[in-house]
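User:
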Amino acid sequence: MTYHGPGQLLGYPIVALGEGRRDAHRYLRDLEEGLIATAAAYGVTASRIPGLTGIWVGEARLAAIGVRIGTGWITSHGFALNVGRDLSGFEAIVPCGIRDKAVTSLSGELGRDLAPEDVARAAATHVAGALGHQAVWDDGALAALSVRALSSPPVPGDRP
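Assistant: Predicted structure:
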């Protein structure tokens, strides 16, 4: 079981995996790499635990990942990065069926409050980069985020 609630940054990349990237394990590792880089941008050292998907700070999960790769190698679903300090929503479940691991958040690790919307730009930039794309922001609006392949840079004045 998983939990999505206040204090989490949810990212659901919808990407057509191209030639050379059509590997579910690589896609998962790329998402992890982008999230590890996002945590590092805030001074938090996150890593992988062999055999478990997601990113971890020590033995505590910082982000969960659950994806689907459909027809045409089109991805859906994504990740939940715990940003806020209130992790009480996890108390009623066994997150991802893993009983012997705790859950943590960026704010908890830093000892100061961050909001998911404050982390969104860094996460979009790092996750897009790990997937071989570039995040493009329109007027700084989160709702207008789009991702373009690095091989086709944005054209000035072009809207996503």
